Amino acid sequence: MKSLVVVATLVLVACASSIKEEWQQFKLTHGKTYRSLVEDKNRFSIFQDNVHKIQEHNKKYESGEVSYAMKVTQFADMTQQEFLDLLKTQGKPARPTNGLEFDSTGIEPKTAIDWRKKGAVTAVKDQGQCSSCWAFSAVGSIEGQLFLKNKTLIDLSVQELVDCANLIYGNLGCNGGRMDNAFEYVEDYGIQDEESYPYTAHDGKCKRNGYVVKIKKFVKLKDEKEVTEAVSSKGPVSAAIHASNMSFYSHGIVDTRSGCSSLPKDLNHGVLIVGYGSEDGVDYWIVKNSWGADWGEHGYVRIKRNVNACGIALVNSYPVL
């Protein structure tokens, strides 16, 4: 009996040592620093809970109960509520929308497409602690259209949208916004490139000074069929999704078993659809996120297609140059 107790104790010590090492590596990898030892201790406790959650989820993934795996990400020291506070695709239309209806070409969509392979997608960025997903989504869609027009891929300024496409357009900068509102700003003023107006992840004073590109209008899509045709023939498309359960996404295809909602009221994150395909008979969207390249599949998530998983086909649009 004593030997069993000793073995159990050694296992517990080893586990405690392992999680502490993982915690130190997590802080090093993600540049995490805290104001005091008390906060460090509190964050470590949250980290432990999240690691346990990830481990339990991955057991279900291995047994086929869920469709995607989890991993430790930069959000692992945050509570669920703190993570939700970052998800703010919100704001209101500032004026009656001037979005155009989609005009179908009547051409059958391609079986699969990946605009990354065609050079139409810039590198994955990290929005940081600023709820600017809406701006990254809108900028990504404009970047794609600009590439398709002149074959030049340019990083455009997300920060200009955060600073300038603000209250008058119904957006709240680092407190959230909408992609269509951002398109309306670029229709009025155009947008500079990232080099001229770099990202700071904070609200700032508008420093608008000319533009690299201006859009004429934007097109709104009404269902997943139109989204498929648009991604197939027009390029990357902005989308809103329910992302409350995606903080620790690693790889796989997020489907309706993930717990994400398909209701309009629950949409809380702006992303960019850059393609679609199929794996083992499961159709999926290829979705570019703005949580850095270490998150997910090198910064991307695959979401099941043709079932409006996570509400991905509810709010979609793309610009017209």
TrEMBL record:
Residues 23-83 form the Cathepsin propeptide inhibitor domain. Residues 109-320 form the Peptidase C1A papain C-terminal domain. Keywords: Disulfide bond, Hydrolase, Protease, Signal, Thiol protease. The keyword Repeat does not apply. InterPro entries: Papain-like_cys_pep_sf (IPR038765), Pept_asp_AS (IPR025661), Pept_his_AS (IPR025660), Peptidase_C1A (IPR013128), Peptidase_C1A_C (IPR000668), Peptidase_C1A_papain-like (IPR039417), Prot_inhib_I29 (IPR013201). Residues 1-18 form the signal peptide. The keyword Hydrolase applies. GO terms for biological process: proteolysis. One of its GO terms (molecular function) is cysteine-type peptidase activity. Belongs to the peptidase C1 family. This is Uncharacterized protein. It comes from Acanthoscelides obtectus. The lineage of its organism: Eukaryota, Metazoa, Ecdysozoa, Arthropoda, Hexapoda.
